[in-house]
Design brief:
The chain is of the alpha/beta class. It contains twelve helices and 17 strands. The radius of gyration is 26 Å and the shape is elongated.
Length: 431
């Protein structure tokens, strides 16, 4: 199977070499933008050369993180709080750093092991909202294994997310069986259509259950996630209309509580939403939210290179050392084609094998580095190519930008947090 795939990839490339373009276009591929490191990454490469070892590293630029936190703080209206999305910053120290810089004690957590680790050290000022509904068995396991050492009290500091009437019933049963008091935040579907209550009749039934079981569960607010507002193509739905639809339904849900279940209403309810893509849209009094969540903005992986985050800076990189440098791109079964490959694509003049690979990431520095289309992917040693204009040698680092943080970060041992090309700390990662 692998042989057939390799032959197919090779045939595709060789076919491209042999084909004559229509309309007078050049037969050969243009040279990619090639060159050496920009000054920033040249200094960073020099710093890593002095490190105690050479393996793939996850880097976080603290100067860029500081810039991004300062930018997001300006987006939070006076009548709302900011909540950090832990899954996007999956490191205890990175979360603590972001909390300190953004002046918040509010977290959104998506994974029970993360919740358990955070609960152990959290104090009485922490406020935790679950970002997705947990199976009731998982919630039960959390309480069974709960260890706290600094005053954290889940009964008043932890909001569980519930998305259906059935899950509300399950959590009520858990609370009764284990003699617990649970805070229940209700997920509502504000247009993403990934679950949650999407009509007032079903929502009213769930609120009625909570009202009838106030000894065991308490209503703590709503959560409505709205990334579709900026991601749905404008030809299908304008951003303005998507936001208006979200706001209308959210306000209808709030009004339902006020008018039909006034005993559940109080001034400390959490009306959560947003996210890095849309947080900038909630910066005025028109938003129904009083609690805005975001996380990826702080490190800005490539999936967040969008217009609503244009003022934010990339702050996370993968750096991996070059293990081998070979002249040309000599490939199995087509060794005699080396000269033709170089003629077709001058970026194949040099091949490098780097430590690791197949990360969800884009090659970033030096410019001109790219994966070999025939050799294919590898998680062990990836072949990358560059022309003679790119001056790299064994031991130099190739820099990549992750597509996202929540899946890519935990693949590494730790984070190297640096500032102005000086490594300040090594931070642990949740995994």
């Amino acid at each position: 199977m692998k042989r057939r795939k390799f032959i197919a990839q090779t045939s595709k490339v060789l076919g491209g070499i042999a084909a004559v373009s229509l309309g007078g276009f050049a037969l050969f591929k243009p040279k990619e933008i090639s060159g050496n490191y920009t000054p920033f990454f040249k200094r960073l490469n020099n710093t890593l050369q002095q490190h105690s070892r050479k393996i793939p590293f996850l880097l976080v630029d603290l100067d860029a993180v500081d810039h991004n936190i300062a930018a997001v703080k300006k987006m939070i209206p006076a009548n709302a709080d900011f909540r950090i999305v832990v899954k996007s910053l999956p490191s205890k120290e990175l979360v603590a750093y972001t909390m300190q810089k953004s002046d918040t004690k509010k977290l959104m957590v998506f994974h029970q092991p993360f919740l358990s680790k955070l609960s152990k050290d959290a104090d009485e000022t922490m406020d935790v909202l679950m970002g997705k509904p947990m199976p009731v068995q998982t919630a039960a396991y959390y309480y069974k294994t709960l260890k706290t050492s600094n005053g954290f009290n889940p009964a008043i500091q932890l909001q569980w997310l519930v998305d259906t009437k059935q899950r509300v019933l399950e959590y009520i049963q858990l609370a009764k069986k284990e003699e617990l008091q649970l805070l229940l935040n209700i997920e509502i579907d504000v247009g993403l259509h990934r679950g949650g209550f999407n009509n007032l009749a079903d929502l009213a039934a769930a609120l009625q259950l909570i009202s009838e079981n106030k000894k065991h569960v308490r209503f703590s607010g709503f959560m409505g996630y709205d990334p579709h507002v900026v991601k749905v193509p404008s030809l299908l739905l304008s951003r303005e209309k998507a936001f208006e639809n979200m706001r209308t339904f959210y306000n209808e849900c709030k009004e339902l509580v006020q008018t039909k279940f006034p005993e559940l209403w109080h001034n400390n309810l959490t009306f959560n939403g947003a996210g890095s893509p849309t947080i900038a849209l909630h910066n005025n009094n028109d938003s129904p939210l009083n609690d805005l969540s975001a996380g990826s903005f702080a490190v800005k992986p490539t999936d967040f290179d969008i217009d609503t985050l244009a003022q934010f800076k990339p702050a996370s990189y993968i750096a991996t050392p070059i293990l081998k440098k070979l002249k040309n791109s000599t490939l199995p079964s087509i060794e005699n084609m080396t000269g033709l490959l170089n003629l077709w694509d001058t970026n194949m003049e040099n091949s490098y094998f780097m430590y690791g690979g197949s990360w969800m990431a884009n090659y970033h520095e030096p410019k001109g580095i790219k994966g070999n289309p025939i050799f294919g992917k590898s998680t062990n040693q990836v072949m990358v190519n560059a022309s003679n204009e790119t001056d790299l040698t064994v031991g130099d680092f190739i820099f990549l930008r992750p597509h996202q943080s929540e899946f890519v970060f935990p693949q590494f041992e730790n984070i190297l947090a640096f500032r102005k090309h000086t490594i300040e700390a090594e931070w642990s990662l949740f995994n």
